[in-house]
Write a structure and sequence with these properties.
mainly beta, 20-stranded antiparallel beta sheet
Amino acid sequence: MKQILTTIDDLVERDGLYYKEFTDVPFTGDITDKTTQGTFRNGEKEGPWVEYQDNGQLSYEGTYKDGIQEGPWVQYYEDGQLSYKGTYKVGEEEGPWVYYHDNGQVWYEGTYKDGIQDGPWVEYWKNGQLRWKGNYKDGKEDGPWVHYYPNGQLSSKGTYKDGEKKGPWVLYWYKGQLSSKGTYKDGEKEGPWVYYLPDGQLSDKGTYKDGELVKQYQ
């Protein structure tokens, strides 16, 4: 007798569990069709899962435990190009993760702890140039950060504390000339700031208090 295969379209989801239509027993068994291959146990995804795009390209591959993502996970763009890869722990991102532009260049890479960015992170422009690098602590920017233009020139540099800019910051024009410099306090401009034109000439300067300009000099 020919075996009847179960497809993902044969199942319905109720309160987080999967059932065959017209049944009250959570589904246990394998799913095999053109786009999905995996196993359910007591209505929850369990073990290795693979899903394909409609064009036949691989969409993702990873593992579930008790219906939750667990272990290495890889996701792809529609054309088969790698989109991201990393590891899940009880459904949360954990450890090193890498994300890619659709041209294959690395986009982001860094580390998660319990699903939150924690530790060094970097982002790259689509042309491969570094866009920024810095550190996260409990999901917030913390410590020295630097930003770059797509041409590789430094855009800005300074420090964050608990996700807010703090202390001296310096900004640059696209070709490397100094644009402005001053100090932040609790994410707001504080004290003297100086601004320059792209040709290096002084533009203006002023003094800030809690982010508000309180005195301007020509």
